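Batch job 17 of 40 flagged for manual review because the log was empty.
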Amino acid sequence: MATGVTSFQWFFWGYSLSFSHTAGKFIGDLNNIGFRQVLAAPSVGSGRIPDLLFAVYQGMFAAITVALAVGAVAERGRMLPCVIFMFVWATIIYDAIACWTWNPAGWVATMGGLDFAGGTPVHIASGSAALAYSLMLGKRRGHGTHELNFRPHNVTQIIIGTVFLWVGWFGFNAGSALSASMRAVVAAVNTHLAASVGGVTWCLLDYRLERKWSAVGFCSGVVAGLVAITPGSG
């Protein structure tokens, strides 16, 4: 649902608010609403990348950010308010921060801020939104009792999901170079090493504390490493 709602929002006005060529320091305008005039002209990200391709690529970032934010309320939040939240939050929060950070006209970009692939627009923004949403909903039913069991219910799915994330993260980080260049290669290498070291480190800490190896712990470390390296990978 997050992917569907955010993809429509991105097509409707999200891309224009984030990456219009005539954007201000804080937010873009509606010159590209509904992907108007978004075709083969050079994008604001790179003169070698056409607008439409850049729009689709950046739409992936927007969709995954919203999915990360609303994942915190899974199984305890109502769907309709959540869908409304997705659309409004993507418009007011994500699009604005993406404009600040990645649009050359944004105030963070003009001050020399460096965020290669989404530390602030993706991870900090989605984490803050998830925390705020969770606080508004309150504690889960059964919090602090045996009724609420936080143990993973399907380790196989966790491992498969981690594999998908690990491979897909190369698209986020290496792809953010917007070219088949040495910078993309460096980003890919940094991404892979961070995931590897994060997984092994978490496993070692698990063993030190629990005296057993943990596949879930390894997966947690992999994701932590991927998140940590993202803004500085390239």
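Reviewer: the log was empty due to a logging misconfiguration, but the result itself is present. The two ends are 31 Å apart (CA to CA). Unflagging and moving on to job 18.
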